[in-house]
Request: fold
Amino acid sequence: MPAVPGLASSFSPSSRLGERTLVLLTSLLATVFTLTWAFRAKTACAGAPFDEFGRSLRFPSGDSHAIVPCYSDVMMLWIGRDIDRHVFPYIHGGIDSAGQLFGGVVEYPVLSGLLMWIGGIGAHTDLAFLEHSALILAPFAIAITVLLALMTRWWVLLWAATPPLVLYAFHNWELPVVFTAVAAVGVMAFGASVHPRTGRRRISLRTTAVVASVLLAIGFSLKIYPGFFVLPLAAYVLTGGHGPRVRRALDWTGAIRVAVAAVVTVALTQIPFMIAGFDGWRAALTFQGKREADNTTNSIWFWGLRHLTGGETNGYDSIVDIASPLLIVLGFAAAMWLGWKAYRDDGVFPWLGVAAAMLAAFMVFHKVHSPQYTLWILPFFVLLRVRWWWIAAYLVSDFTLDATIFRYLGFDVSDSPAPWWVLGGVNLGVWVHAAILLTGIVAFVRTPLREPLASYLRSAPPPAGPLTRLAASDATDARTWLGAPTLTRGDVTLRPLTASDASALAALISESDRELYRWTSPIPGTAHEATEWIVRALSDPARIPFAVLYGGRLVGTTSYYDVQAEHRSLAIGHTFYTPGTMGTQVNPAAKMLLLEYAFATCGATRVVWHTHESNARSRAAISKLGAEFEGLLRKHRRFGDGWRTTAQFAMTDDDWPGVRDELAMRSAR
Reply:
């Protein structure tokens, strides 16, 4: 039976459950699964019994044999930052002479501290604080998933279904800041996307970029790094975005608006804390400034430079204090210069690639490289067409680092030597990360964007997704409409051609008889040639090849080809028989079967035949079937070393009733 029309279109953009819906459902389910796993992994370090401060006695080690470490900064900071006392952050605190924070000050920017305080409301144990924090953080992870799914389709699974979300979702307060960065990209994509009624971008570049800048500035007040992206975003606006690739006047007004929006937003989030408690606000900055590149930082400085300076000496600290910020600034400058060079070459400033390069420079050269920073770079692996083996290497080394660094710290605290595999895992993670990030400072700038994000930013209609394209391909496949039937009339049978027919097909025409087929496309003469011929025929989605059997013996082949299901049109051809079959009832019977099936069973409206204009035998045979000659198609097909002029014949569904009876009589003789 032929395939049912419409089933193949179930993934079409217009269908109720299209590919976008499937992507969203799949990625959201994956996110819920990974978040659940992440929460369960962290609660292994929590639970009764608790001490008088609400600290679980199981913290920080939990099950020492667990693959995923249960340690989290969330639970660790329950004690020591006055979260357990529900002190509002920054206002009443400061930093003492020993470098310890007090009075509700936390070492993060103000909005992260505010979220931590909110998470502590109503909590009296570290487990309750973890639970409240998870309820705050999880919606950000889900929102990131939705945005990435809409901008990259199935690539979102790199975010939703890989280890980093399990390892770090509830390790620290990274998800809100990652959301601001991804949301800024989402705003830029939405603003540039084509409005269905006007055919133009939805929102002006300036307005869109100002909104994105506000989001990035909010991210700055959460965990700093999104604020860096305002610079390439302003350069993108300055150069006109993805406008026509012609020389354009620089939009200084738009770029300044982007910068001002970021500055004002940062001021609005920071100044209230500065006014209410300047010492507490400044204490967080002082704490970060005094932090050393020690064994808790996972940095190239501790695992590299330290070995050259004889340990954590004063010279080591001085070099890090100077080299780290200097190299970060140089990395930023290199990324911007490469982006400007790309703009000069291609006419578009690649702000997202430059942002990724700047983040890579910050992560590799900063004196602190916490494991959870993987959540910062991971969305760029989704948004940019980063090489798959880079992503795989980064994620494998990241898992190795997370699985070994906390074991290393445990051995260090106990003054016990760490096993070789722990030290090896930490070094592998640190240096593979560093190598990829260093390369990324250059490579990310010119890395193309994934679809449909790239099309959105160009204000162009995005291409269909892979499942939609596959469904469309299936819909145009000849077998979707016609199936692959076996047809029988008397002693003549047409069945689907298979590779096992190669030997019989090669034996149909002897060398002495080939002159009879001089106007026919090359006919296979060996089993190898026949196998290749059959494979090509079966690989053509618009063709259905048949073996023609007479009395159970293979005597030829014929095909439906140029099948166009949308127009209910097809051609019959690629036909040849043994010389002894010519002029018998075999060909009329075969054509009777093919035409009856096409018109009566599958609802075809038009059947076409093509043959060489000089092939008198074939033209006569086609005419005898009742097909109408429609004319000559010059240089229609390749033929030998040149071109052939094709004689075209056709029959429509209107013609078929008047032709059928005569053809049935001929095929029965």
